[in-house]
Amino acid sequence: MSRKFDVIIVGAGASGLTAGIQAARKGAQVLILEHMDQAGKKILATGNGKCNFTNEKQGIAYYNGKNPAFVLPAFGQFGLEETLRFFRELGIYPRSKRGGYYYPSSGQASSVLEVLLMECKRQKVRIAYQIGIREIRKEKEGFFFHTKQGVFQSDCCILATGGKSAKKTGSDGSGISYIVKFGHIVTEIVPALVQLQGKQSFLREIAGIRAEGRIRLYIDQQKKAEDIGELQMTEFGVSGIPAFQVSRHASYGLVQKKNVYALLNFLPELSREETVDLLKQRFLIHGKGKTVEQAMVGLFPRKLNNVLIQEAKIPLNKPASACVKAELETLAYFVQSLKIDIIGTKGFDHAQVSAGGVDTEEINPVTMESRLVPGLYFAGEVVDIDGMCGGYNLQWAWSSGAVAGMAAANSRRRES
Question: Are 407 and 20 contacting, i.e. CB atoms less than 8 angstroms apart?
Fold first, then answer.
């Protein structure tokens, strides 16, 4: 294998593979260095193995970071339409499902990875696996990569090393040391899109319950984020997409040692007054001959009913029709504001993505090139941008990878 390339990319994930393809399409000789034994392991895990690879709803409201607007120049060059066209050309027929989620028609994440690797092969992008990078240095002649397999050289370097989420897929934070040595600031990296851990003892009683509802996350008494959808209760806390969506904020609050808690609302479509009226009908009008426990049957899962009643300090066997207004108002409060004190998350190993990364103030958003080191580019999760559930993190990977790859190839041409 030749030791000199126009562009060397570190990381054969979604952003790295896309960067390699786009750079090669512009005539660059490309090598991708991957420390795992295969490419795209994280792609295979996305969307429960079905790969929700983008979403028809786009905008900075779906992205987080120090400066979410950083994504706009990249999306202007390689956004939703360009992504769909790119994958159609590679062989992926996209299907849009509820919520605007796009999946491959095959229903297999392996299809997405396979077409990317086929295109890499067609474009003569070389991939070296289990490479074991020891050092990356920038010298007058370019970038030098000292690895277990020898030294490689390139004019441009694209770091697409991922964050710290899902270590078994290769996203283990090992790329951070290279970035810091180049003088870049890396903002605090925390788990995102991850389950929340609570301290309430009643969590064990409602483990396994799935219920539609809203979660509102508070940090030091101030509401920080909220989402609505199917909440999944576990013995350790709260899971489900709504919990994932607010989890990055919980992670940062916990790192800062602030008071973090969530309020769960199991009737988000009703006002508090409407909820009290609903309970009056169930207890006082239709509850004759029923206990409090029986009057709640059919509203929520039985285990959840009982926890809500117990939190309201109403005896389960009390006659429903004997309840007074104050008791029903208290029960309505817990139905719509069940408090979970957040004491942690399930951590990086369970997180779908990590938040934080290379400070975007130090990256040119039009090219993804470092403002500190000419010829150094960044792509994907390693940058301080993270998206919500729904294909947004992969869209950022495709967009940032494509822009970095094209810019690196164009830079090589200008220098020559």
Answer: no
